[in-house]
Amino acid sequence: MGSLSSAPATPAHPTTDPAPRRYAVHGTGHRASMYVDAMLDDFPDLAEPVAWCDPNDRRMAHYTARARLAGRTPAHYRPEQLEAMLREERVDVLIVCSPDHTHADAVCTALRAGVDVVCEKPLTTDAEGLRRIEEAARASDARLTVTFNYRYSPRNAALKQIIADGTIGTVLSVHFEWLLDTVHGADYFRRWHRNKDASGGLAVHKATHHFDLVNWWLDDVPETVHALGGLRFYGERGAGRPRGTRPALGRHAAADDPYGFDMSGDDHLRGLYLDAEAEDGYLRDRDVFDEGIDIEDTLNVLVGYRGGAAMTYALTAHSPWEGYRVSVNGTRGRAELDVVERAHVASGAATDLLAWRAEDPAEVPQTGSPRPAVDPSVAPGTQGAGSGARANGNRLVVQRHWDVAREIAVVEHDGGHGGGDRLLLADVFRGPGTDPLHRQAAYRDGLHSVAVGIAVNHSLRTGHPVRITDLGLDRR
């Protein structure tokens, strides 16, 4: 196989189509908001939502009420009716944003039916799912696009440009540290992501974004992985567990409990989860310190690349501040990207459940509450701006050998991820056109990124390094 980014991916929507393409959404949790809003508000001339597919009719009804305001009434189907839905609704594109462990079945079913797929990261959670998707993609004429919005963030694109221009020469090593604070990081431990069978753990669900960034920055293929990590802070025996008895659900926490999570005050969350609990029993606000959590909150990973570079990667899901640091060492110098997305979380400030927008590109509504939104990257500047030694913002510095360091200006825009989410959605629905940075990800990019996370899980289980070729993927 050649380079990961040798050509831009084919758009999900050919811009020459005379009428909107027919879209269906598989999985109608909060992540679906990103695509539903885009189809109804921003791209109605290109995308018509014709069906939802979800095991919970209340969740589908919530989005149908939203769609009716725009004159649309999508049909409802359950996951076991996916094939029938694709056929009966004459679906052109399936958007997959259901829980991660369901992705492989949905993607393969659509590809076999000749339906294009736009899949949320990660593509799947295990090696078997990767092999199935790869086989289906090779056998189908349909297109499979994976959405990696971090590529579209201006600061990440700026680092890509520096590397691609050869400013620091050939890359020899990368150090990448990602910090999730005790609001955003904690949220993965109260919902379905807390179970590795459902999410693959943070090495798959979250770090897939980060592994894709490095694969894309380097334009290289990961080959070997060695990992250490564990559940250290959250969970029944976690070091961060407050003293005393914990409530089973975040909605029952004391008002000053920083790990509380009450969805009742937000119409969207209430409609998607509280009102839907009786139908399938899913609880969105499990306590982050209770039993049954089996994913890691602390990871240290070493990745070797085909071209000879190596990456050291660290993920901490219980940091007092949120952001990331990347250092790239090349034969001609070094580039450093430092990002602070939330400089601090105030003690006793429980999560504000305007948090349904936590990972969506739409802006978080403001209510004057002192509580922080879950994900600061989609609500920049709203909470925890910081002072003194740390403040929100980003800094990209390049220093060539025998030269002084210089800061590279990064221009960001309104919206999530510095305006990157809007660019991603435009590429999904309109097509990327000519993009020298090749930001729209093809399915092999999705395979390579999640393969690292799956190899991390293998290494954690065995205590040994893992060659990604041992996962049985086609490495052409």
Account of the protein in words:
With 476 residues, the protein is of the alpha/beta class. It is 28% helix and 22% strand. It has 14 helices and 18 strands. The strands form three sheets. Strands 16-15-12-11-7-10-9-8-18 form a nine-stranded mixed beta sheet. The chain has a seven-stranded mixed beta sheet with strand order 3-2-1-4-5-6-17, with helices on both faces. A hairpin with a 5-residue loop joins strand 15 and strand 16 (406-408). Helix 4 packs parallel to helix 5 (127-139), helix 5 runs antiparallel to helix 14 and helix 6 (154-164) runs parallel beside helix 10 (207-218). The termini are close together.
Features:
alpha/beta; 22% strand; 14 helices; 476 residues; nine-stranded mixed β-sheet
Reconstruct the topology from this structure.
Layout: E1 21-26, H1 32-42, E2 47-53, H2 57-68, E3 75-77, H3 82-88, E4 93-96, H4 103-112, E5 116-120, H5 127-139, E6 144-147, H6 154-164, E7 171-181, H7 184-187, H8 196-199, H9 202-205, H10 207-218, E8 222-230, H11 267-274, H12 277-280, E9 298-305, E10 310-319, E11 322-330, E12 333-342, E13 386-387, E14 390-391, E15 393-400, E16 406-408, H13 420-430, E17 441-442, H14 443-462, E18 466-467
Parallel strand pairs: 1-2, 1-4, 2-3, 4-5, 5-6, 7-10
Antiparallel strand pairs: 6-17, 7-11, 8-9, 8-18, 9-10, 11-12, 12-15, 13-14, 15-16
Helix pairs in contact: 2-11, 4-5, 5-14, 6-10, 10-14
What is the C-alpha radius of gyration, as a whole number of Å? 21 Å
Q: Order of strands across the widest beta sheet?
A: 16-15-12-11-7-10-9-8-18
What share of the residues lie within helices? 25-40%
* Distance between the first and last residues' Cα: 4 Å
Strand content: 15-25%
Main structural class: alpha/beta
Spatial shape: globular
Subunit organisation of the chains: single chain
Overall mean pLDDT score?
89
Number of strands: 18
| Uncertain parts | 1-11, 353-370
- What is the helix tally? 14
